[in-house]
Amino acid sequence: QVQLVESGGGSVQAGGSLRLSCAASGYTYSTNFMAWFRQAPGKEREGVAGIFTGSINTFYADSVKGRFTVSRDDAKNTVYLQMNDLQPEDTAMYYCAATSISRRNAGSWFWANNYIYWGQGTQVTVSS
User: Fold this and answer.
1) Angstrom distance (rounded) from CA 52 to CA 8
2) Strands 122-127 and 10-13
């Protein structure tokens, strides 16, 4: 089992920044990929960013490229999402997720059904 706990959400004005953290515990070797998803009211859950364990290769939704950066500290079993130049459309509940995925199939990282473990979510609210 893997447990994921997100933190770092909050309320900011447009143009502001937040850094989300996801602390993983348990049998973390059962997964090799971690991602951030978000879900706004009335909308589908959307993949935001992802990263392989032990790799600097990253994946991003087009809507956040150039503004968000995903990174991880494997020694601390923690993944981060640095969010800069936040906009109102970024408002959502942000979830950390983990799964095991082959590099060949990494192109489908954004599909929520691929993920086995999920955190409880942390709210991000961006005002105009």
Assistant:
1) 21
2) parallel
Residue 96 has pLDDT above 90, yes or no: yes
* Residue type (1 letter), 56: I
Residue 5 predicted with pLDDT over 80: yes
Phi, psi of 85 (to 5 degrees): 50, 50
CA distance 22 to 48: 14
| DSSP label of 86 | -
Q: Give the other-Cβ count within 10 Å of 128's Cβ.
A: 6
Residue 107 phi, psi (nearest 5)? -65, -15
Distance between CA atoms of 87 and 94, rounded to whole angstroms? 14
Please, which residues have CB within 8 angstroms of residue 6's CB and are 6 or more apart in sequence? 20, 21, 22, 94, 95, 96, 119, 120, 121, 122
Three-state secondary-structure class, residue 57: coil
Tokens 């799964």 found at: 99
How high is the pLDDT of residue 100? 94
Q: What pLDDT sits at residue 116? A: 92
Each residue's pLDDT tens digit, 31-70: 999 999 999 999 999 999 999 988 779 999 999 999 999 9
